[in-house]
Amino acid sequence: MVDNLTRRKALFLGILFSLVFFVSPALASETNGTVDGTYKYAWGENIGWINFGCSGCDVEITDDAVTGNAWSSQFGWINLNPTTSGVENDGTGILSGFAWSPNLGWIDFTGVTINTNGEFLGYATLKSDSSQINFNCATGDSCAEADFRVKTDWRRESMRNSGGSSGSAPRNPPPPPVTPPVIPPFVIPPTPITIVDNISDVINYASDFISYLFGGDKPATDTLAEVPKIAPKSFGLLWNLLPVKAINSFVFAPLPYDIRILANKFPELDKTLKSVGVERLSDLGKLTGVSLNIPGLANILNKTITTVGLENLSEIDKLSGVSINIPGLSNLDGQMMNNVGVGKIALIKGLPIAKFSPSAKKNLPAEFVFARANQELVDLNVALSVGERGEVSQQMSTLPGQTLRLVVKPISKASSVTGYFVFKASTPKVSTNSILRSSLTASALFSMNDFVEQAPSPFQGKAGDEVENKLVLSTFEYTDPDNDGIYTADVVSPVVPGEYEIITVINYIDPVLGTRQMRMTTVIDPEGYVFEKNNGKETRIPSAIVSLYHLNTGTKKYELWPAKDYQQENPQVTDVRGTYSFLVPEGSYYFEVEAPGYLTYRGKAFLVAEGNGIHQNIELASSTKWIEKIDFQTVLLIVVLLLLMYNYVRGRARDKVVSP
Amino acid sequence: MQESKKRIVLIAVIGALVIGNAFFAFNYFFLYLDQQAITSEKNKTELNGQVLNFASMFVKKVLQADSEVDFETRLSLENAVRDLKDKEIMEEWQNFTGSKTEAEAQNSVKKLLEILISKIQR
């Protein structure tokens, strides 16, 4: 019984093996064959790859003919059985006859054979240019470079178990096409396959297999890059690929009107713009996000003095210490400045506009609003900035509640000069380090677009050009009491930090000049404050003593800044909000802050450019901060450690007592 | 007593193994997450690099060309654009190569440059 069962098993396995190993070749001997899924490409020396196994190709090989279509990505479909001809099979795998392509013409298949393994061999010939299509890399001994062939599961009759020859005689070739054939392009030979490619192929197949097992989609095979030998028109340098007119109109457009006017008024600005290569509209991008500082009144006065020439000042030493009032060369008390002498000219600071010499007043740029603070002791820094959209705006920053003296010089006699303080936005754009126009760094920065951080446009959200459309906080009149043609007005900056705009409207007597407007964005920076951090939250520290030290260029040492000369106090004691504020001229400064219960803070030195408010927020560290860091977990840990140590010591002591 | 000790040791060993497994599983999981993030970043960087390469090649070899673009260069460009595997770029590239008029070519160039710039991921 058992033997019988074993025999049956052996019989079953034998049948199974027979099916596996012998039925497959029998299936490959079908009379109607199709093209293999892997080996389906032929290579045309002038037309590139031809796919005989594409979806939609439906190529069928019978004992009589080869039917269906082949696909060339460059020249489209090739019909293997056109109505007037067709590729024929004599039943033994010898092909003949013609295929037809609308773009290539007739293709002669004489010379192509199918061997006993179902592989196509030999060449077909394009009648139009006599170029050849290779069906098997083995034919041209090029399998080392590219492994390609067309393979079918059709087998000649002698290789099949049954059946007979049913081939038909080839028909006569059709007449050549009337229309001239299209010039076939040249296609690069396939890239040689290396060992690495083979390994990667193996890996690809393995991953395909795994994805197949798990139901994944087989990745689509990449199509081959085919490039026509004759360059398309777009590569032929026949056309301008970029619209020249639009580029010219952009590149050669002049700078915006606002910048040109300012450059005319301020030669330094003009020089800076030229030196950094900002001469046309297309260069304006270099300025985006960068603030150019426009010279203040003191700078203009200094320029006037330096133009006098050093030789005219050679005798000036004799005047040292003599009480004399020379605008620009003497200080407010009428004393000659110490640092004025042969070969050196002092930078004039804090000279009231009324004391400017007539030539200095004459040199004052017209239709530009200057701002000074602290009884004209500090020239507020007015910066020129270019927005993302190329808009130009003037901007200055100051501290809340400061009395500002605004100075403007009309170009002709004016009937009235009116100013408007207008609210723009509640969130002020805190002024950061602006770059001095004379700075070399500026030149380097301007030449590199990518290094310049883009500033949000100051004109965004602008309702219109009319003053009436804005939220006007106050209106004020400029006056000219001494009739020198320079109008001044004193205004108090708003207490609330934010972004404002000072609009100055000049009504000229001359009807031709009419009414002119000047706009200046004014940022009221929040005051600086002193604070400490508790669990990530800031707590303001009142009654802290904030001392400001400045670098004395004469002694080259830091000294307590003489705030009284600028109508301010130094040191300052912070109020209940922990705030302080200094409005200082340009220079190098640092802070020192002391408060009971806190460690003394000494900040790093920083530079202030041409009259700015200082609004640093200073964090103080508590002198007992290490105690705060001890939480209950730390205490618990310490207790556990102590207990362990105690236990260890007790244990050792007990051992000593017990041991003899 | 001996049996009890054995059991305790066994429990300890199994416990240690379980904890070790859990530890390594967590470690593996977080490393896997890290690796995913790095792979994604790498892919992004590679794609950006490819887009930039193609854009740079296009500008240098085509827009700044002072003679007809030769076969080898066109082949390199074709391969570069195919390597991007981006349908939108490919379509616009084909529009450009198949341009019949100057206006068409200019339009395609503008669109192609715009697409290339927009494809660069931040």
TrEMBL record, chain A:
Q: Which InterPro entries match?
A: CarboxyPept-like_regulatory (IPR008969)
Gene3D superfamilies noted in UniProt? Carboxypeptidase-like, regulatory domain (2.60.40.1120)
What stretches pass through the bilayer?
632-649
**This protein's UniProt keywords:** Membrane, Signal, Transmembrane, Transmembrane helix
The reply to whether Cytoplasm figures as a keyword in the UniProt entry is no
Give the species: Candidatus Nomurabacteria bacterium GW2011_GWF2_40_12
Signal peptide extent:
1-28
The segments labelled Disordered in the record are 154-181
Membrane recorded as keyword: yes
Q: Where is the composition biased (Pro residues)?
A: 171-181
Q: Where is the composition biased (Polar residues)?
A: 160-169
The protein depicted here goes by the name: Carboxypeptidase regulatory-like domain-containing protein
Automatic annotation (TrEMBL), chain B:
Say if the entry is tagged with keyword Transmembrane.
yes
- List membrane-spanning regions: 7-33
Entry keywords, A to Z:
Membrane, Transmembrane, Transmembrane helix
- Give the top-rank taxon of the lineage listed in the UniProt record for this protein: Bacteria
Name assigned to this protein: Uncharacterized protein
The organism of origin for this protein: Candidatus Nomurabacteria bacterium GW2011_GWF2_40_12
